[in-house]
Structure formats: C-alpha cells, structure tokens
Amino acid sequence: MSFRDEVYELVSRLPAGKLATYGQLAALCGRPRASRIVGAALLHAPEGLPCHRVIYRDGTLCCDKAFGGKEIQQQMLEAEGVPFLPDGRADLRVCQWEGPEAGFESED
DNA sequence: GTCATGACGGATC
DNA sequence: GGATCCGCCATGA
Question: Where does the record place the Methylated-DNA-[protein]-cysteine S-methyltransferase DNA binding domain (predicted)?
Fold first, then answer.
C-alpha cells in the first residue's frame, strides 16, 4: 500500500455533499505535510475517484487542469448539495469532511 | 542513491 | 488582503 493508494482509499470514501482538502487527506494518510503528494496522487487517480470533492484549504477549487474546468467541478459539487459562497469558493465551514469514520459505522 | 518536480499549505512581504 | 517564497514529502528518472 503506497501513499497514493491510501489517498485513493480516503477519496473513494468521501461522501457526496462533503469536501476534503489535500492537507486533510495527507494528514489522514499520516503525512500532514504531504498535501502536494495528495494532489499528485489525484493527478494519476482512476476515473471512479470523486477527486472533484478535494479542494484547497482556502475552499477554492483546483486549476482548470482538472475535469475540464473548475466551473465544471463547482457544478458537480453543487449538484451534490455543496453550498458555494458568492465569493466563488466552496463553503468548507459547513461541508468539510469530518473523516473516514464519519458515517462509517461498523462497516468493518 | 540523488536530483528535480508536483492538483499544497502556511508564512512572509 | 493579495501575491510571492519557502518548506514539506513522495514519486519518477
């Protein structure tokens, strides 16, 4: 299990309507400072991965290098129920992912 | 094993 | 408050 694989696992467990930051996923992988590694991992991520739910600490979406445009990403998130601020950023304050154990009850 | 790079993040200017 | 710089760490050549 490589670091990237752990990142994939966490992202795949990300529920709709929830958002996570690169640094958060990195921390959950045991490397709080490896936020950039998470980004690099998502760059090589498979299609089934909801990597559009992973954004910056600031709540801003990633560059237009993903999903064909950050606007597309925002629309997908809005479709999942993620509130966006008039500032053009996601409302991380209310929809940030709490962790892999959130909603993960006795699934083992 | 070493050098360079990358979808970041925090600190500084 | 925004732009820029440096630091961090895994991955690939």
Answer: 3-82
Annotation marks residue A63 as catalytic: no
Nucleotide with C1' nearest the A37 CA: C10
- Whether A106 shows a pLDDT value over 50: the answer reads no
CATH number of the domain enclosing A73 = 1.10.10.10
Burial class (CB in 10 A: 0-12, 13-18, 19+), A7: buried
In a domain? residue A45: yes
- Is residue A103 one of the residues assigned to a domain? no
CA of A70 to C1' of C7 (A): 27
The per-residue pLDDT for range A80-95, each reduced to its tens digit, is 999 998 888 899 988 9
Angle value at C-alpha A34, between A55 and A96, nearest 5 degrees: 30
Among left, alpha and beta (phi > 0; psi -120 to 50; other), residue A21 is beta
Residue A2 Cβ under 7 A from any strand C atom:
yes
